[in-house]
Amino acid sequence: MTRSDLVDALAERFGQLGQRDAELAVKAILEAIGDALVAGQRIEIRGFGSFSVNQRPARVGRNPRSGESVAIPAKRVPHFKPGKALRQEVDRATATAAVR
Fold first, then answer.
1. Which of 7, 27, 52, 96 is deepest in the core (most CB within 10 A)?
2. How far apart are the C-alpha atoms of 52 and 81, rounded to whole Å?
3. pLDDT, tens digit only, all 100 positions of the chain
4. 58: Cβ–Cβ under 8 A, 6 or more apart, which residues?
C-alpha cells in the first residue's frame, strides 16, 4: 500500500472526509511520527505497534568487490515493532491464505 492508497482508503472509509482533507490528515500523522523519531522519542500505538530509534555502533565492514576494510560510522535508525494484536491478525490472515 502506498501513501496515495492510504489517502484513498481513508477518504472512502469516512465519507465526510474529502480527498484533500484525507491527504492532509495522512501527511500530518506521518510528519508527527517523523518529527518524534528525529527527536529520539518513542511512539506507541496500542494494538498496532511501536516506533523507536535504535543506535547502531560503528563497525568495520568489507568492500565485497575489492575486499578492503571500510569504516562504517555509528548511526541511528528507525525501528518498528508490531504489537501483539497486529502480529496475531497477520498470522491469522497468512494461515487463512495458506489453506486456500
1. 7
2. 8
3. 999 999 999 999 998 989 999 999 999 999 999 999 999 999 999 989 999 999 999 999 999 999 999 999 999 999 999 999 999 999 998 888 776 6
4. 71, 72, 73, 74
Residue 6 C-alpha from the chain's centroid = 13
Contact call for residues 74 and 58 (beta carbons, < 8 A): yes
Q: How many residues does the chain have?
A: 100
The whole-angstrom separation of Cα 84 and Cα 14 is 27
Cell matching residue 22: 484525507
Q: The whole model's pTM is what?
A: 0.77
